[in-house]
């Protein structure tokens, strides 16, 4: 009896165990299937519009979303707006194009924004320096290059900066000196001498400019930076005091010279057009006729912005730099350019410097004929006949 009872209990336990195993397997299978179905339903119906929107714009519609998204994981980056902003940031090529097109204000803003993110970006710093070169006075641009050279830049960048400084300075110094524009020579060298008082080239060039303007005290102040027995410094002193003596003698004889000037057989007579209290003469800049105001008080010839445009701007003229110049309306920042060919009174002069003045400064004329051209002649005005008498100087 006990044996039968034990067998029955074992059988019941076995059946219960088998049943539990079977039910567990079914429940597990059902739970797994329900999960898959639920996920599918959620992606296809529960949020269909949102999913399709993301799929179309990021992963690609109808291409098996997750597989395609895995190929472009950055598309799901929560900083995707930053990526879009980067895509909208102008490239260096685009910034350079802005510089060449003359969009200077917009370019300054773009460079400033990018330098906030990359303050030591060499391409951006060099581009900014070129922008300063085109929009600020030349001495300011040169000082900016010197400041740039003090940053921890690569050797190649420093070499570019050094070459740029040498080219800009040498071109301007040679052009201004050739045209005897000593006031502008002084303006070029004054800030450079202050920045580098031990630079002998700046010292000598500034002292020479003061010497030709007979500013003896300023000349000596500058030459004090050199040893007193320096050969080059002494040569400038000798030239300055000899010139001062010669000018004093010339002033003593000025009246007699003026009275006898018209007797020379070599004189060239140039007709003057009187407009108000001004005299005008005709000249030719490149192939463009120009009506120029005779201005013996101007050290540098000037052209109007209209004539500048007619001459082809920088396609045909050489840009020297921007300088602060005095006009009847006050001090202005103006471009200094080099005109390859300038004809006046039958004489042709090469590489004549000219300041480009705004239209409001020269509303009714093409320019001012200054002493860098008139100084090539001994001249006199006959106001009764409206005639300009010219005699080319022998030492020219």
Automatic annotation (TrEMBL):
Pfam families: gag-asp_proteas. Residues 34-53 are annotated as: Disordered. Residues 38-53 have a biased composition (Low complexity). It comes from the Bacteria. One of its GO terms (molecular function) is aspartic-type endopeptidase activity. One of its GO terms (biological process) is proteolysis. This is Peptidase A2. It comes from Alteromonas hispanica.
């Amino acid at each position: 009896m006990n044996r039968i009872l034990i067998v029955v209990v074992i059988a019941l336990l076995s059946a219960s165990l088998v049943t539990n195993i079977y039910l567990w397997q079914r429940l597990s299978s059902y739970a797994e299937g329900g999960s898959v179905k639920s996920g599918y339903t959620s992606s296809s119906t529960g949020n269909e519009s949102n999913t399709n929107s993301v799929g179309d714009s990021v992963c690609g519609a109808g291409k098996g979303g997750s597989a395609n998204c895995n190929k472009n994981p950055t598309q799901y980056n929560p900083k995707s707006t930053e990526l879009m902003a980067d895509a909208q940031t102008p490239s260096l090529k685009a910034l350079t194009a802005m510089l060449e097109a003359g969009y200077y204000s917009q370019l300054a803003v773009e460079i400033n924004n990018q330098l906030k993110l990359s303050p030591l970006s060499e391409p951006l710093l060099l581009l900014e320096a070129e922008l300063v070169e085109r929009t600020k006075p030349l001495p300011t641009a040169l000082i900016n290059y010197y400041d740039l050279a003090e940053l921890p830049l690569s050797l190649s960048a420093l070499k570019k900066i050094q070459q740029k400084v040498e080219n800009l300075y040498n071109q301007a110094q040679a052009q201004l000196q050739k045209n005897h524009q000593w006031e502008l020579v002084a303006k070029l060298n004054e800030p450079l001498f202050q920045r580098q008082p031990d630079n002998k080239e700046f010292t000598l060039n500034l002292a020479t400019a003061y010497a030709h303007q007979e500013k003896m005290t300023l000349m000596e102040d500058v030459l004090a930076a050199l040893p007193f027995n320096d050969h080059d410094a002494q040569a400038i002193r000798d030239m300055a005091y000899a010139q001062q003596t010669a000018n004093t003698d010339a002033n003593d004889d000025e009246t007699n010279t003026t009275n006898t000037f018209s007797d020379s057989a070599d004189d060239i007579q140039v007709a003057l057009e009187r407009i108000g209290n001004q005299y005008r003469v005709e000249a030719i800049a490149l192939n463009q006729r120009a009506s120029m105001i005779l201005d013996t008080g101007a050290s540098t010839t000037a052209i109007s912005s209209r004539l500048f445009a007619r001459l082809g701007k920088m396609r045909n003229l050489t840009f020297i730099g921007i300088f602060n110049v005095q006009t009847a309306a006050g001090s202005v920042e103006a471009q200094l350019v080099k005109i390859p060919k300038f004809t006046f009174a039958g004489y042709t002069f090469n590489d004549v410097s000219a300041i480009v003045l705004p239209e409001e400064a020269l509303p009714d004329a093409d320019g001012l004929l200054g002493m860098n051209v008139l100084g090539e002649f001994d001249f006199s005005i006959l106001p009764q006949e409206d005639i300009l008498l010219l005699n080319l100087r022998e030492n020219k």
